[in-house]
């Protein structure tokens, strides 16, 4: 029995479009927001903190942390930095790639 396996990269190219297309750019942007939420959730869980504890430490509220973890599209940089540094005790690093 032969299985036709496709890499995730090839699958996305086929289903969404190749890099450089508008549809792919929108997909990639959404993926970055999703990834940010997952990273915050993982960091919070690794530190044994609840969403409410992170919210209290960072001066926001539990529902905002929940939305951020579930793919909140628009987050102010200053709020994100406060959540990372004060809420999670981490350091935010940013890079630009071409």
Automatic annotation (TrEMBL):
User: What domain of life does the native source organism fall in?
Assistant: Bacteria
Q: Does the keyword DNA-binding apply?
A: yes
Which Pfam families does the entry mention? Answer: HTH_3 (PF01381)
| PROSITE patterns named in the record | HTH_CROC1
Positions the record marks as coiled coil are none
Q: Which InterPro entries match?
A: Cro/C1-type_HTH, Lambda_DNA-bd_dom_sf
The UniProt GO MF terms for this protein read: DNA binding
Which terms are listed as keywords in the entry? DNA-binding
Recorded protein name is DNA-binding XRE family transcriptional regulator
